[in-house]
Amino acid sequence: MTTGKIIKALSGFYYVLAEGEVYQCRGRGNFRKKKVTPLVGDIVEFKADNKEEGYILSIEDRKNEFVRPPISNVDQAMIVTSAIKPDFNALLLDRFLVLVEAKRIEPFIVISKMDQLSDGEIEEMERYRDLYEGIGYGVVLSSVSDESSIDQIQSHLAERTTVIAGQSGVGKSSILNSIDPRLAIDTDDISESLGRGKHTTRHVELYEISGGLVADTPGFSSLEFGDLELEQLPECFPEFVEVQNDCKFRGCLHNKEPKCAVKTCVEEGSISKQRYDHYLQFLDEIQNRKPRY
């Protein structure tokens, strides 16, 4: 038996990377009986007589997993949001950050297409960079023609398994292609009528890039907080966690409670009012979601 990592799943086959070689494997029948599906990112034990005919025998425990996209054992998420076409959307960025924080995965932010902005628009993106860096997130202001920004992204990727998140058309595949042109990942022009890109990525696959593994995925098709409990939401805002012990009540939701340290910080300006407003919006969404049976 050999230990390896699933780097691609396609048409019932699992492609397992082990000691620099890739083996095409099928899952054992008992996985189906146990309702276990191997995921890209899984560490597995497998047996293979040759590179085309292998069988996955067991799957190691996962440290985390996503349902959409189906991937496991992620170290960090690179959240790509464009400065323009589609326009920068702070609410959507905060939604991605919450989804990633809820999985205890470390995010870093890439704001793409900076080369298409006016001076005033650049200053606005720099203010957002300062805001998110102040919270503790890594932020790269990027354009595919700017080698230094591509170098910054590469430095984040080394020795880690990274999932890329972001809406269609923000330039995720273009960034990967500029890091490693051999990938030649499909990119489409923005659909002008829709104002968003077409989905060009069809399946989850881990690519060896910059000394790490990077998942170019069909994207986070579900941006709903389906599994997130109300009490978890404040934990997904690092700047809230920093001051929450100063709240009068334990388990404070930072909403209508008196003597709330988070609300005081918002009033004083040390916590972004925009981020706090987004938090209240997410809180309301979770409180009012319909129960699932």
From TrEMBL:
Pfam families given in the database record: RsgA_GTPase, RsgA_N
Main subcellular location of this protein, as a coarse class: cytoplasm
Amino-acid positions noted as binding GTP in the UniProt annotation, renumbered to this chain: S112, K113, M114, D115, G166, Q167, S168, G169, V170, G171, K172, S173, S174
Cofactor note: Binds 1 zinc ion per subunit.
Cofactor(s) needed: Zn(2+)
Superkingdom of the source species: Bacteria
Keyword Zinc: yes
CP-type G domain segment(s): 63-223
Ion transport found in the keyword field: no
Any one of the GO BP annotations: ribosomal small subunit biogenesis
EngC GTPase domain mapped to chain residues: 72-221
UniProt keywords, alphabetically: Cytoplasm, GTP-binding, Hydrolase, Metal-binding, Nucleotide-binding, Ribosome biogenesis, RNA-binding, rRNA-binding, Zinc
GO cellular component terms given for this protein: cytoplasm
Record NCBIfam families: ribosome small subunit-dependent GTPase A
Protein name according to UniProt: Small ribosomal subunit biogenesis GTPase RsgA
